[in-house]
From TrEMBL:
One Pfam family recorded for the sequence: Phosducin
Family: Belongs to the phosducin family.
Domain Phosducin: 27-162
Coiled coil: none
Descriptive protein name: Phosducin domain-containing protein
Upper taxonomic lineage: Eukaryota, Metazoa, Ecdysozoa, Arthropoda, Hexapoda
Organism from which the protein derives: Glossina brevipalpis
């Protein structure tokens, strides 16, 4: 036992210690380099997407002439927020104010509006009974509807942030906040997810066809 205790401790040469630390430094440097390379690639890809979105009219809240133009943009844009409105309806103007703000914030989706009187086929196809109605499209499929102000407790003074949160429920826009809780919602919310009542095929642009 004493012999074991008296055995000299094995010392690691200083050069070997230095080599080990150098290896760790190189490993960290390689990791950082790989992360930086990956980040640059992601930034380039995002920049490419933004350029494509801008080319397709994303970033602005635009008015479509009719449902034919709606089908045209649906061939170019995967995600669409489309407001169906009436000229004489004051509630539609409330949505306009919020959607114009959000269009500039969320380039990933196409924000637009179309007069329901110029969209008889879509009105019938999507079974719209109440105006305003916002149709939310994800990956070229009708995902959700916001019908009137029911989702906001029928209050007219909801914030842009609350509408943004509601749009995000469909996945149509990218949202960084908490999807389970509306932001700054002082009044009780009656937001309910709606089952999709109808879909559309972006290649089906025959406005003369029936359901």
């Amino acid at each position: 036992m004493e012999e074991i205790l008296e055995e000299p401790l094995v010392e690691v040469p200083e050069k070997q210690i230095g080599e080990r630390f150098e290896h760790l430094d190189n490993l960290n440097a390689d990791n950082v380099k790989a992360m930086r390379k990956r980040r640059i690639k992601e930034m380039k890809e995002m920049n490419r997407k933004k350029q494509k979105w801008m080319k397709n009219g994303h970033g602005t809240y635009s008015e479509l002439a009719d449902e034919k133009e709606f089908f045209e943009i649906s061939k170019k844009s995967l995600d669409i927020v489309c407001h169906f409105y009436e000229d004489a309806n004051e509630l539609c103007r409330i949505f306009d104010v919020h959607l114009e703000i959000l269009a500039g914030k969320h380039l990933e989706a196409k924000f637009c509006k179309v007069n329901v009187e110029n969209s008889p086929f879509l009105k019938r196809r999507l079974r719209m009974k109440v105006i305003p109605t916002i149709v939310l499209i994800k990956n070229r499929k009708t995902k959700d509807f916001i019908v009137g102000f029911t989702d906001f407790g029928n209050y007219h003074d909801f914030s842009t942030d609350v509408l943004e949160w509601r749009l995000a429920q469909s996945g149509t826009i990218d949202y960084k906040g908490d999807l389970t809780t509306p932001p700054n919602m002082e009044r009780k919310s009656f937001i309910k997810r709606k089952a999709v009542r109808g879909g559309y095929d972006p290649d089906d642009s025959d406005t003369d066809s029936d359901d």
